[in-house]
Amino acid sequence: MGIGRVYAHAKLRRLRREHGLSQVELARRLDISTSYLNQIEHNQRPLTAAVLLRLSDVLGVEPEHFSDADTERLGTDLRTALSDEATGEHLGAEEITELVRDHPAAARALVALHHRYRDAAERVAALAGPSPHDLTEPHDDVRDFFYGHHNYFDPLDCAAEQRAADLDLAPGRAAGSLTRHLDEVYGVRVVTTAARPGTDVRRYDADSAVLYLSGTLSESQRAFQLATQLAVLAHADLVAALAADPTLSPAAAALARIGLASYYAGALLMPYAAFHTAAEELRYDIALLSLRFGVGFETVCHRLSTLQRGRRRGVPFSFLRVDRAGNISKRQSASDFHFSRLGGTCPLWTVYEAFAAPGRILTQVAEMPDGKRYFWIARTVTRGGHGHHHPRSTFAVALGCELRHAHRLVYSEGVALDDARAATPIGLGCRICERRDCAQRARPPAGGHLAIDPHRRTAVPYPVDGGAG
Question: Which ranges carry the HTH cro/C1-type domain (predicted)?
Answer without folding.
Answer: 12-66
